[in-house]
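Duplicate of #3305? Posting structure anyway:
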């Protein structure tokens, strides 16, 4: 296998890797590069649902998405992301995550890694934007680091910046039953990474709605300030997909956002998200 950096800041692309048949030492090399570079891309893979799932399980335990109507028919651990409509019905979750957020930060035990396998690529758009939260934290002034060091954010499923259920940038709308499965949870604002130990800003955009112990308006203002800092262009990487590409990203050290596509421009991906071990 060979690894090539995607930017000076973060991200790596691997060539010569077949994710369905990695030897133990190959997988360990791949995983080490993943944690070092935060985003890892393996191009032009040919995976069955079983193979995709088996690879994901080598990184962690998959957690089915709360939106269960778009689970893959063979494996509930695979979520279908798609804007394709067949026989008048959507085949997958469209416009998912079109705002900066961290996957499963609304769960008590959040996501370790998210994996997307690209099945159908649109003619335009459909990229993913990533923002490096190690770098964003490192660049904070000493006084700001001291201010947020022990702060805890309260998270809930949703997009703090857009609660309009008719909007394309709202968090994908849940049923009442699905909403009952995602209560409020707590995560540190400046969070040590559970594997690398490095501190990163954690989910300051997306599902963080309040700061524990602060008046609501003051907490939101602080989160908005951190979000504005953490999503600056200098911390970003834009990733384009080809058919068969597998993209894996580290939720504990990144924010990410999907980019919108035209509804009539077909796009389909399979997604698996694996959880961290134990409490956050």
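Output from current build:
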């Amino acid at each position: 296998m060979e690894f090539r950096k995607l930017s000076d800041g973060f991200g790596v692309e691997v060539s010569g890797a077949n994710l369905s048949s990695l030897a133990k030492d190959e997988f360990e090399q791949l995983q080490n590069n993943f944690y070092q570079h935060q985003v890892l891309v393996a191009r032009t893979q040919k995976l069955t649902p079983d193979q995709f799932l088996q690879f994901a399980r080598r990184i962690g335990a998959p957690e089915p998405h709360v939106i269960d109507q778009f689970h893959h028919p063979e494996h509930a651990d695979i979520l279908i992301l798609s804007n394709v409509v067949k026989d008048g019905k959507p085949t997958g979750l469209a416009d998912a995550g079109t705002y900066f957020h961290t996957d499963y930060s609304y769960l008590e035990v959040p996501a370790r890694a998210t994996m997307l396998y690209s099945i159908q690529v649109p003619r335009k758009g459909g990229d993913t934007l990533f923002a490096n939260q190690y770098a964003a934290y490192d660049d904070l002034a000493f006084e700001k680091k001291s201010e947020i060091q022990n702060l805890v954010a309260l998270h809930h499923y949703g997009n703090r910046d857009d609660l309009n259920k008719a909007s394309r940038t709202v968090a994908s709308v849940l049923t009442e039953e699905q909403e009952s499965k995602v209560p409020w949870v707590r995560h540190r604002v400046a969070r040590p990474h559970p594997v690398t130990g490095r501190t990163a800003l954690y989910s300051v955009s997306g599902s963080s709605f309040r700061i524990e112990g602060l008046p609501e308006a003051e907490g939101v203002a602080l989160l908005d300030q951190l979000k504005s800092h953490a999503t600056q262009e200098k911390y970003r990487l834009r990733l384009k997909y080809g058919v068969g590409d597998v993209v894996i990203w580290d939720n504990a050290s990144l924010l990410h956002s999907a980019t919108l596509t035209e509804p009539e421009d077909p796009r389909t991906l399979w997604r698996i998200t694996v959880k961290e071990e134990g409490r956050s």
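Confirmed duplicate; merging threads. The chain is about 20% helix and 30% strand. The chain has one domain: 2-275.
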